[in-house]
Amino acid sequence: MDFELTEEQTMLRDVTRSMLAANCPAELVRTLADAGQDVADKLWHRGVELGWMGLAVPEDQDGAGQGVVELALVAEELGATVAPGPFMETAVVAAAVAAADFDARDAVVASLQEGTARAAVATGAFTATTEGDELVVDGRATTVHSAGSVDWLLVTADLDGSPVAVLVESAAATTTRRTTLDQSRGWYDVHCDSVRIPASQVVLRGESAVQHLLDQMSVLVAADALGVGERLLRMTIDYTAAREQFGVAIGSFQAVKHTVADMAKLLKGVHAATYLAAMALDADIPQASLHASVAKAFASEQVSAVAGEALQLHGGIGFTWEHDLHLYLRRAKVDEAIFGNAAAHHERVLALS
Which CDD domains match (predicted)? Predict the structure, then answer.
């Protein structure tokens, strides 16, 4: 696999990085967390201006016609700045809806790309029952990102024994904000109690299509975690270079050097696994789902390990509320759990091998 970025991909990464550096300081993340808000409007509009939500939408529907690799590049930068907001979920839902066929499809895709609507992905224990020309959706999901601030939910459900993903207006569902470790994002329980939707709003049908959606989300969470880990590594290098003990920087101690080198080595592995999986999904190779689970399992384990080492090397200051390290550690721990933890993906790897 060639992991070299194209000129366009490099430009996307660099522009995204610059925009987030200018518009998503840690103070913004803390302010939103204190206010219980999921999205910063200014940051959201900046993401819309860069075309994030239309990255994977086909060009004939006014999208960029890109793939999971490009989404992962953005997700990695979002993780590196612990940016709030359902950017990647909206982009994935926009691409999925663009491939569907129902009356309101074009209007929904346009609103998602233009940023006037937002979306989230809800996976849990949902069922859909056919009643005439409608579906009745029942069930519950936990830890749905920004569900209280979106307009649409792409809900994975069982319909007559077959997996589907259906588009549900969020106003028709009950959303309850949860308290989690993550201070940078809002997480919700979503409950559908006999929610009626047009039968045409089945966006994805069959195990393969629904699994592809879940694989995409797994890889994008892995990319987010990678960004978190890379930022923690840079924070640790900077801190150990400046912090002195016995008259010298602690970064000069061999044990500290070895620990930092190990952190960098683990992140190189996460990078390789994540982008290999993204490329496999874009190429639609038979092993793509296997690669997605490998990436999510490895990122879940290793980025959390990197976060733990960063905390140890920061010493007492790393435990304080005023230091930004805890924002990254908390996000890493939630990334570890969502869309399948390491144990769940190890089981999938075993089943698919």
Answer: ACAD
